[in-house]
Design brief:
The protein is mainly alpha-helical. It contains 13 helices and 5 strands. The protein has 3 domains: 48-179; 200-260 and 339-389, no CATH class; 268-337, no CATH class. It has helices spanning 9-23, 29-34, 48-71, 77-110, 115-150, 159-179, 233-239, 274-282, 287-297, 309-316, 321-334, 350-356, 363-372, and strands at residues 299-300, 318-319, 344-349, 377-379, 383-388. The strands form 2 sheets. The protein has a 3-stranded antiparallel beta sheet with strand order 3-5-4. A two-stranded parallel ribbon has the order 1-2. The longest helix has 36 residues, at 115-150.
């Protein structure tokens, strides 16, 4: 025990602290912390090109103002004085632009870039010079004409001078309109973004019976008014597997309960391609298997109207109620089973409707999603009522 006295914490910790203080130069930490971190390079808030553009815009505004004053026959001297000041400011901005051109050329030469790059830069500088000379010529002509107009020792007819002033100001405005940079930024309205969720278009679902085959046309004899329906009527009717919709319509509707040739024919939306015929055959031309295939394979999209048709719905494995019905009818007709569209109003439990549109948290959101897609819909705390095919 006596030979290990130096291992006691009383001596080890001070020795360790002294070693770290010396080896790591801990006494310099306060000095380092006190130093300001190096500032990051920042882009100039108003670079020379932006200043130059601002001066051009101001010059355009003043040129128009001078032309308007002169056109009204008023004293144009104050407007011309403002133009002279604006031209002087433009000359100062022009010097900054030329300094940038020179700096750019030096960098290009130091980088040993191909002659084509240097020539491209030289062409840009030459085009800039030509525009500036043309602009100076027009404003110089306007100032010269105005000087002759206000010259008390000019006893000649000033009509030509007034005409020259008018023409020079007009040509200067045209040049500025032509050469000013186009607007590169549009103010952003967060409420009117170019890509945003569709605004809901609320339309109440119809509750009168309009159960029509797809080949029906407005004005047909059997499109007369039919009896009013309970919102859940179509749901109950569709669930009655042993009942045909046509069999329960009023007898005066004129719709035959028996199939017709149109119930087996292809249409613009019900495309009977070889792919669809092969799929129907692969399902044994069995209406139950065909229905189960469509129900279990096609994802619901909350939009309204025929958009994809049967083929695209099959390819994308998704579609709205019209598209899904088109695929189902196409498969049934390919299996030589007559099929028609039926349009009606259904009432879904809130939980079912919420699941249909992606699992939203309440019936109001479910109805909003449907309305955003153009589906006629209404909702309550317990149900979502919508038109459906």
């Amino acid at each position: 025990m006596g030979s290990r006295w130096w291992r006691t914490p009383i001596l080890i910790y001070p020795l360790l602290g002294a070693f770290l203080w010396t080896a790591l130069e801990l006494w310099r930490f306060p000095e380092v912390w006190a130093q300001e971190p190096p500032s990051r390079p920042t882009r100039p808030t108003n670079p020379p090109a932006a200043k130059f553009t601002d001066h051009l815009k101001n010059l355009r505004r003043l040129a128009k103002q001078a032309a308007d004053v002169h056109g009204r026959g008023e004293d144009v001297a104050p407007a011309m004085a403002a133009l002279r000041q604006a031209r002087q400011a433009l000359r100062e901005a022009d010097r900054a632009i030329r300094d940038e051109f020179a700096a750019t050329e030096r960098k290009l030469r130091q980088a040993n870039l191909p002659p084509e790059i240097l020539q491209r830069h030289a062409d840009a500088v030459a085009a800039y010079d030509a525009k500036q000379r043309e602009l100076d010529s027009q404003f110089g002509g306007a100032e010269d004409a105005h000087g002759r107009i206000v010259d008390p020792w000019n006893f000649e007819d000033r009509t030509q001078d007034h005409s020259r002033l008018k023409d020079s100001l007009k040509r200067a405005q045209d040049l500025l309109e032509k050469h000013l940079p186009k607007v590169a930024h549009r103010p952003l309205d967060p409420n009117r973004l170019p890509h945003r969720p569709a605004e809901p278009r609320w339309k109440a679902p119809r509750t009168s019976s309009r159960i029509l085959p797809t080949y029906a046309r407005p004005g047909s004899s059997w499109l007369a008014a039919q009896e009013e329906l309970d919102p859940a009527y179509v749901t109950r009717l569709a669930a009655a597997s042993d009942t045909l919709v046509a069999q329960v319509l009023p007898k005066g509707s004129g719709l035959s309960p028996t199939p017709t040739a149109a119930d087996l024919a292809p249409t613009e939306d019900v495309q009977l391609t070889q792919e669809i015929r092969d799929l129907a055959a692969g399902l044994g031309n069995d209406p139950v298997k065909i229905y189960e295939y469509v129900r279990n394979t096609i994802d619901f999209e909350p939009t309204w109207g025929s958009i994809k048709g049967s083929v695209l719905t099959l390819w994308e494995k998704s579609g709205n109620a019209f598209d899904t019905a088109s695929l189902l009818i196409a498969l049934l007709r390919a299996a030589n089973i007559p099929a028609r569209y039926v349009l009606g109003t259904i009432q879904l439990p809130a939980a079912v409707a919420q699941n249909w549109v992606g699992g939203v948290v309440n019936p109001q959101l479910a109805a909003t999603v449907l309305a955003s897609g153009g589906v006629p819909v209404s909702y309550s705390a317990a149900h979502v009522t919508l038109e459906h095919v």
